[in-house]
Amino acid sequence: MTERPIPKAWAGSKRQIRANQLAFNLSSDAIEFFRRVSAQRGMATSDFLRDLVGLPVKPPQRPRLTFSASPEDMEKLAARYGLAEVDPSSIRERIQDELLRFYQRHRDDSSER
Fold first, then answer.
1. How many Å from the N-terminal Cα to the C-terminal Cα in the chain?
2. CB atoms inside a 10 Å sphere around CB 48
3. pLDDT (tens digit, 0 to 9) for every residue of the chain, 113 residues total?
4. Which superkingdom does the taxonomy of this entry point to (predicted)?
5. N or C, where is the chain less crowded by C-beta within 10 Å?
6. What's the predicted TM-score (pTM) here?
7. Which residue, 17, 30, 12, 20, is CA-closest to 50?
8. The domain containing residue 32 runs over which residues?
């Protein structure tokens, strides 16, 4: 099978295209342990695992919290925040406010750590 040329726009992603996703089936306790240790060290779980097995870890360019939201999720969020329509910027702003309020209420609560 011959290898087709990669479009110029994708040239910078060539390494990522060929990367392998490695997944491990461990007990729930073991998975939770690795997540806790990663968080205690201020690392993403995947970065901690890379470090553990001796692979390089790049520092985050823009540390931030993220999650994905489907169109249906966005509709639910618009309703939750009393918006007449789905407005991603307004939704993001309201979520950020909610996250900051949660942080301020619980940052000193040792049970959240």
1. 52
2. 19
3. 566 776 777 666 665 667 788 999 999 999 999 999 999 999 999 999 999 999 999 987 887 888 999 999 999 999 999 999 999 999 999 999 999 999 999 988 755 44
4. Bacteria
5. N
6. 0.59
7. 20
8. 22-60
Q: Is the dihedral of CA 47, 68, 95, 101 positive or negative?
A: negative
Based on the fold, state whether residues 81 and 101 are members of the same structural domain.
yes
Q: Which of 61, 59, 85 is nearest to 74 (CA)?
A: 85
Q: Are residues 53 and 32 in the same domain?
A: yes
Ramachandran category for residue 62: left, alpha or beta (phi over 0 → left; psi -120 to 50 → alpha): beta
* Cβ–Cβ < 8 Å for 57, 51: yes
Measured between alpha carbons, how far is 92 from 66 in angstroms, rounded to an integer?
Answer: 10
Residue indicated by tokens 């942080």 = 103
Q: Is 7 within a domain?
A: no
Distance from C-alpha of 16 to C-alpha of 81, rounded to nearest angstrom? 37
